[in-house]
Amino acid sequence: MNAPLTIGSVAYSPNVVPIWEGMRDYFAETSTPIDFLLFSNYASLVDALIAGTVDLAWNTNLAWVRTVAQTDGACRALASRDTDLVFQTVFVARTGSGFTGLASLRGRRLVLGSRDSAQAAILPLHFLREAGLNETDVALTRINSDVGKHGDTGRSELDALRAVLDDRADAAAIGINTWQAIGRGELLPGAFESFWASPEYSHCTFTAMPALSIDRSDEWTANLLAMDWENPQHRPILEMEGLRAWVPPKLDGYAGLVEAVREQKIPDRW
Amino acid sequence: MVAAIPPVSAGLLLDLVDSVRRVPTGRSVSIDFGTCDRDAALELISAWCLSSGNEIVKTEGSAVTVLHGRSPDPLAGLDPDQLPGSRVWVYTNFDCNLACDYCCVRSSPKAERRAIGADRLRQIATEAAAAEVTELILTGGEPFLLNDLDELVKTCTDKLPTTLLTNGMLFRGSRLERLRRMDRSRLTLQISLDSATPDIHDSHRGAGSWVKAVAGIRTAHDEGFRVKVAATLPADQMHELEPFHGFLDTLGIVRHDQVIRALAHRGVAETGIELTVDSLIPEVTITADGVYWHPVAADHDDQFVTRDIFPLADAIAEITRQFMEHRRSANAIAEWFPCA
Ligand code: SF4
C-alpha cells in the first residue's frame, strides 16, 4: 500500500480537526490514504509545501498566488470546492445609506478586513482601483483581527460590520460567505444592505509541488472528487467544509488577485 | 434619510455568527440578547438558525443556547419497537387476587379497581390503530377479575394484535369460558412465573401461587394460545437463569417467549433498579387516571404525563416530545462534562 500523502491545512476553524479526521477516514478506504498536518498561518503552510514537509496544501487564493510566485509557476492546483469557483466580495452599508456603486464611496469611510484577506482587503482595493478610485479617494480603516489566516476565520469581516454599525465607517467590504452567514441582509432588513458585488473569482484550492507525481496526484484528485453529497458518511464532512462537491480548479479565477498582489506589492510570505 | 431602527440590535446578529463559528459543529454556545426586545431577538435568532443550519437548544431568560449545526435525531439508534407509541399499554384494572411483595402498582385484593372500562378501551383501540400503534398490551392488577374481560379483549384484538398479562391463576369456571372466547390468532397471554421451583416464586407472590401459575400456563398453552412467561427477578439472581429456562422449555414455552425482567424499585418493592423518566425509554401507558410514561410507574406521580387520554395521538406526541427533550439534554450534559 502507498504511504499516506500528507496534507497541510491552516487551523482556521474549530472544525478543522473533525474535518481532516473525517477526510483521513474517507481516504483510508481509497487507493490514496492521507494524513494531515495543521499550521497556524498560511506563510508556514506554503513554506512546508515548498520544503516538501507536506505533499499537498489546502491553500487560500492568496496562498495559491504566493506559491505560484515563489515556485515560478511550478506548483499545480488540483481541486477546489464548488463554492470556491464562485466566490465574491460584497460591499455592504447600513440600510438606506444611499450608496449606488463603488464610485459613490469617494470621500466616504470604508472598512476592510485583515490585510492578508483576499476577499475583504486585497481584492476590494483592486475593485476600487478598477472603478477609478485610489486609496486616497476613500478613507480606509483596516481591521487586522485574524492576520495569518487570510481572512478565513471571518472574524475581521464581522468586526468590519460592527464598525459600520458603530458609525466608525460608512461601508464594509466582506466575502460572500460572511454576507451569507448574516443572512444577506434579509434577516434584519433595517440593518445592512449590499450595494455592490464583485464578479466571481476563485478561492481555495489544493496545491501540489512537482515532487508529487502527476499519476499520484491524479489518483488522489479522482478519489477526492468521488466524495458524494448524497452519501451520509461524506455529507457531514462536506457540510463542515462548506461545499456540496469537489471540482477541478478554475485558474483564470485567480487573475484579478495576481494583478492585485502586483499592484499592492503584497510581500511573498504573507 | 434616516435609516430604519431595527427592533433588535444588528450587533446581536454579528455576535451570534461570531460565537457559533468559534465552536466546532456539535457544540453549543450561549448568547445573551440583553435588553433587546425579547420577541424580536428570539425571532431573529430562530430565523438565523433556520437559514444557517444551526439549532436553538434552550432559552432561559435573555440567554439562548445555540447548537452549532443540527443535533442528531435524538431517536436515531433506537429499535423501531422502542419508539414511543409503537406499543400502547393499558391498565384494565388495579385490583388483584394476589398481593405480591414487589408489585410495582401496589395491587392487592384490597386495591381500588380503577377500571379503564369498555368505552374508553374501545376508543383507545380505535385511536391506537389509527395512530399506527402496532400492539396493545393489557395489564393490571389481574385482568381476569373483570367479568367482561372477553369483550374488552375483543375490542382490542379486533383492531390490533394484543398481549394480555395475567398471573394465570384464575382459569376456572366462567373465567376459563371467557379465556376460551378470546381470539387465539390475535392474542398472546403473558403469565408471570419467577422460578423453576415454588420457593422463590411463592416467597414473593404467596404460598401455593407457583403451582397455580404453572397450571395456568399449561391450560393457556393447551387451549392453543401463544404463551409468554415473564419472570421478575432481583439483579442478584439474574445469573442463575439456565434451570429456569430449562423448566420453561419443558412447559413448551419457546425461548424468545421466556421474558426475564429486573425487579424495579417501585410500588411496594423495597429494592430494585431505580427507573426515572430521564433514564427510561417510555412505553405509553394508559390507566383510568390518565397517561403515564411507563407501565412500571403507572401508580406514581413522577411518571404521570397527562390526564387527557384522548386524542391518543396527542398523548403519544407529548411523550415523544418529552423523550426527545430528555435525550437532547442528556447529550448536552455529556457535552458539558467532556472529561467525565
Ligand atoms: S405483581 Fe401482578 S399478580 Fe402480583 S399483585 Fe401486582 S398485579 Fe397482582
TrEMBL record, chain A:
UniProt cross-references to Pfam families, sorted A to Z: Phosphonate-bd (PF12974)
Q: Quote the protein name from its UniProt record.
A: Phosphate ABC transporter substrate-binding protein
> In the record, what lineage is assigned to the organism producing the protein?
Bacteria, Bacillati, Actinomycetota, Actinomycetes, Micrococcales
TrEMBL record, chain B:
Protein origin, superkingdom: Bacteria
- Radical SAM core domain mapped to chain residues: 82-303
Q: Gene3D superfamilies given for it?
A: Aldolase class I (3.20.20.70)
**Annotated organism of origin:** Cryobacterium gelidum
| Protein name listed in UniProt | Radical SAM protein
A molecular function GO annotation: iron-sulfur cluster binding
The record, for Pfam families, names: Radical_SAM
Task: List the keywords (alphabetical).
Answer: Iron, Iron-sulfur, Metal-binding, S-adenosyl-L-methionine
